[in-house]
Structures are given as C-alpha cells and as structure tokens.
Design brief:
This protein is an alpha/beta fold. It has a single domain, classed as Rossmann fold, CATH 3.40.50. The protein contains six helices and ten strands. Strands 1-10-9-2-3-7-6-8 form an eight-stranded mixed beta sheet, with helices on both faces. It has a two-stranded antiparallel ribbon with strand order 4-5. Helix 5 runs parallel beside helix 6. The longest helix has 18 residues. The chain starts with about 25 loop residues before the first strand and ends in a 37-residue tail after the last helix. The structure holds S-adenosylmethionine. The site of S-adenosylmethionine has 20 residues, from strand 10.
Length: about 325
Amino acid sequence: MSRTNGLATMPLFGKADTSNTFNPEATSVILAGDSAETLRSVPDGSIKLIITSPPYNIGKAYETATHLTEYLENLSPIVDQLIRVLAKDGSLCWQVGNYVEESEIFPLDIFYYPFFKLRGLKLRNRIVWHFEHGLHCSKRFSGRYEVLLWFTKSDNYTFNLDGVRVPSKYPGKTNYHPGENYGKPSGNPLGKNPADIWKVVEKDWETSLWCVPNVKANHPEKTIHPCQFPIEIVERCVLALTSENDWVLDPFSGVGSAILAALRHNRRAIGCEKEQDYISIAKQRIADFRNGTLPYRPLGKPVHQPTGREKVSQIPEEWLVPRGDSQ
Ligand SMILES: C[S@@+](CC[C@H](N)C(=O)[O-])C[C@H]1O[C@@H](n2cnc3c(N)ncnc32)[C@H](O)[C@@H]1O
C-alpha cells in the first residue's frame, strides 16, 4: 500500500457516501462548481494522477464555444491549480481531440503542450487513441483518433508497466544473439509493453491489440452525458501511473467515469463538475459500484471477431456487379 503526502490509509471498498468536500478520510469526493474555485480546497501536492478530458470548446450542451485563445485563457486558472495539487512524483493525462472553426481543424494537443511545458511538466508519451467510427467528412479525411498527453511533474514518477502489459504476439520468440541467453525466450512472461497507440472500438466486432470500446448508445456504461470516457481507458492509466490508496483527480469529471476507474482499483478519487445533473448521475454510479450493480465493460474483455457471415460485414447486393457486366 502506498501513501500520498501522509494522508491516512483506510479500507477502500466501504459503503461510505461520496463526500461533497475534500476530506483526507474519504474515498470518493465530488466538488460541485467551477474547478478554478473548487480545486482550492485540495491540498498542495496531494494528487498522484490527474486524468481528464476537458471541454473541447465545440459547443456541447455543457459549454459555450468561444475563440480558441479565449478558451485556453479561461482554462489557465484551472491548470494553475492542477499543477499546484499534483504530487512531485505525479502524472497528468490530458485527453483531447480537435477544435474546429469554419472547417479548419486545430488539434488541441498542439495548443496544450506549451501550456503544460511552460509550467514545468515533462511529456512522457503522446498516446494516440484510435477509433473506427465517427463523423464522415466530405472536405477532409474523416478524423479517427484523439490524443492523450501524459506528462509527469519530475523525472521520479510511478510507471507500473507490469500492471498493464498485453499478450505478446509471438511469446515463443527466442534470443538469437550469441551468449548465455542464446535460445532462451526473449520476451517477458507477463506480456509486452502496450505501446502508444491505443485502438478504441465502438462496437465489439472490431479487432485491436489494445481495444477499448468508445462509449456509445449500445455500451453498458452509457448515460446521458454526450462525451463520456470509457472507464477502461482510464483504468489503464490508473494501473500504470498510481499505486493503491493514491489520489486520482478528474477536474472535469462529468458522470464520474475516472472516479469509477480509480475506485475499481482501490485508489481514492476526486471529481470536479459544474453541472448538477452529471454530479447526480456520477453519485448514483458510485453507489451502484459500491453495491456491485454498476454495468461496465470489464478491463481487457476480448472483442468479438466478425466471422464474415454477419449481414453487416457483407457487401450489399445492390453493389455486386452481375456476372458478364464487368466490361
Ligand atoms: C468532456 S466532458 C468530461 C466527461 C467525463 N470524462 C465523463 O466520463 O463523464 C467535460 C465536463 O467538464 C464539465 N466542465 C466544463 N467546464 C467546467 C468547469 N469550469 N468546472 C467544472 N466542470 C466543468 C462539463 O460540464 C462536462 O461534464
């Protein structure tokens, strides 16, 4: 069990309610209101992992789209608070897509990188989160990935690679370099490093090395929130970048997916959210989790492979060229 800045340890899977204020004895906290204000109650250096998907400024129900410069300026006070609360050996994972203005795209990770670099953070990975489905564009190639920037506050940070290894493609590979290891297995029995491209699928019939279905209508985790995190993608970061009992923080927590990912692995969690409807759903999901009734997709559940016999994987009859008509 690890400790963060002397905060007390306690059994994590009790039936305790989610606290509305920061409390070092709590296991889950949701701070209601603007994060720029609510984060002030979180102690300096207390958070091991900050993981979030911030508003993208694209006019979703919970945001008013503004000019990109104004959008970033508005987030500045929140980011300052985040740097303050992040532990010296902590990590920040910032998941973003594109801001779009008059059909021109502005990949938000490009704009966020200097935000964090100028505040002293160091980039460890730019993880591409790839998905197969989405809007079909007619004036540019359809966008099929978003990005997760993983920064650390210092060179001394937690990275539990063994907790997130994936099966090797060729576990039987052997060492061919002359020497005492010649002929011995060259891989790791726990599997290989999952790499920096995480393939996210929307439906279970697609294949990938590290598949996490995007949260859409047919997903067991779906709520009314328009852009939920799949719990599974946060779980990978939680497992790799924190230890049990550490604090995980999502400053834009929506319906609480990051909180749930943290609780599932015996970490403490704080969410900040301004919309009361989302807070109520998050609290209900946490309560469901605690009493074992939360629907979620289990981490690493294998994805369904198409057999080719499903109607959706066959070429429509109207597209088939009748024999003899091909010239
Ligand atoms: C992209 S969504 C995050 C969804 C979340 N990852 C989930 O799985 O539910 C961004 C969230 O940030 C909230 N939000 C936006 N600005 C905020 C602010 N200044 N303070 C607190 N919450 C904010 C929005 O209401 C929205 O729920």
